[in-house]
Amino acid sequence: MTPLGLMKSPISRLFGVLFLSLCIAFGIYISLEFEESLDGAKNELRYLNNLFNQSTKNTLIKHESTLKLIGRELISNGALDKPEVGRNLIDSMSHIDQGMAGFGLARTNGQLVLISNVPTGSTLPNLLENDHTHNEFLKTVKKDQLVLGKPYHMKVLDSWVVPLRVRVSGKYAGQRRYGVMAAGYRLKDSNAGWSNLSLASGQKISIIRDDGALLYQNPMGKDLKRLFNKQVSSSLLHKVQSYRPMTGFFYYRDTGGFYLMHYSRLPQYEITTLASLPMKEVLEYFFTRVLLALVLLSVFVFFGWLAFKRIHQEQQQYEENLVYQATHDALTGLPNRKYLKEFLDHKLKYSDPTHVKDHLAVLFLDLDYFKKINDSFGHSIGDLVLKQVANRLRAKVELKDLIARQGGDEFILIYTGFESVLELEQLAEQIIDVITAPMLVENKILTVGTSLGISLYPRDAATSDDLLRNADTALYKAKEDGRSTYAFYSEDLNKVLRRRLDIEEGLATALEDQQIRVAFQPQAEAKTGKIVGVEALMRWHSGSLGMMSPEEFIPIAEDIGIIRDLDNYVMEQAIKSIAHVNAQIGESLHLSINVSAKQLMDSHFPEKLSQAMTRHDFPPSHLNVELTETALLSDFTLAITQLRAVRNLGVGISIDDFGTGFSSLTYLHRLPATEIKVDKSFVMDILADEHDAALTRSIIQMGQGLKLKVVAEGVETAEHLEKLREYGCDLIQGYYLAKPMSEQELMSLLTSRLI
User: Fold this and answer.
1) pLDDT of residue 692
2) What does the alpha-carbon distance between residue 562 and residue 130 come to, in Å, rounded to a whole number?
């Protein structure tokens, strides 16, 4: 079973819709979960950086105040001129604040005059003369705020420190004196305020100066020299400096990955604190949140697919069985006449009459005296004979194309690629020999004969209908010749053709001569026996030909194009008559009228039907139009349009001869049908043929499952009726109830008879 084949079925399309809906819902869920994970990461990063920023700010304010206080005290005591006077104070400060690596005092010219724990009198450097401190010292002299220098490694303490410098002043000897107070802040000291923050996996905090110098980072790593000697990337510095708000988020990509970052500025110190988190951490957290849902969805989709696939397979098998039943004979398993018709149409459509290889023969086979076997031994024996005939044809006749059962004791054989008529004659003789050989049936030795009629394409006809009709005509010629023989169709069959011409001539004036009559065959509820409707049937009593069978003259009327006029006349008269019957005896009979293909395809048919009901005050809900598959085949799309227009009038749609053809099931779901009629060929044998019984029961059950009313035709005995009641059939029609009758006979029946 291919995926494409699966997706063509309604159940699989339903699965596709459900799967797509689940995917959309899961996509929305994924989106919401990702947004929530990202928001959670942002909130944590914001909280971390705000805490880090505030801790950094508090630490710097504290040390700035401390340095200014010490510096003022030192200057006021004259330490700029006499460094020894500040020795005790500056040494004691390095012991009080363990986070500081040391303190120092310098004049504004850059000369250090005092450093903690360095003896007085030692040679001290000038900070303006050092390339690493020159610019930072000048900036300190010009500002009132604390200035942070670039981290450096203090060998004495084996510690990395951040230089802190601030301009200080004090009065000494009646003058305002200025200096610079400096200190070294230990980056890894456990007492440092910003070193006490607890970081989650992947989180990183750092301080960068506005010129791009990295002042602090946690975690630092092992190579601190490389860490602090390099500038932060220009792209990162640009992002930090380009955002206007004092705090916010941005995304940053470098060789190490893609990061979510939160920044917060401290402009008074010309620094920015950063907190970063790799996006892979966010994604890993996100995946842990959705993993269970993803697993559950996968399991649901997998088992859902298995369930839908199983349902599809069962549905497909069921449909294939129904199609097979509709296209094959239940008794013999051979293709039926509808399958044969479509097969032959397809063959002819793609055949070239000029090519010998495309020539074909239609062999119409009828068993001789088969009725005597049924009458003498019963239908069950007759069915076994038909099975043996079918098996013999399959096994012993080397046919290249098709063997089909036309119905009853008739079989059709299609033979192609023959080289001469002699080859066909040999085939016909072989078939006769095969069938006429004695057969053992239920310990009885029986013999049947057969007659064959043969028509050829393209010699005799170019269409399937003409080929079948000509073969049938030739069959009658073979029977007239004494049976158990064969005959080819030829133009010399004048008798048959003369009969047809007589029928055509009579039909041309049948309406004008008022020879067309309408007969009504009652339909009754199977359960109660109450007559609830009738089917209108066309009857022709010809002045020259006598009473004509509808099976004989209606196909000819269709061929010569007058069937539409006949149907319209019957429709008008039937509606008028049943409206009159209902008014006279107070009944509400339903009326079914047969519609031919030509009448259905008439664009004005729905309008004519509506006008007829209006003229006779006939309720649309009490009217059904009956049509066979043939009425749909010429233009199915137009037929559907017409039937929908009829249905919109409130008129019911009945599918006649249901179960005898392929297309009935194929198109049923597209037709606005309200009723199906089980063909009498099934009903007649439901008592003796278990296959026909099973098929009849299946059709009834299927119709009721589709909420269609089911009518069984051909009910001829009480046993038929009882069996149909058992199957749950809605309505019955047949000779057991009543034969077709006139309007007056119908009135009499309705007032006197119930079955």
Assistant:
1) 85
2) 121
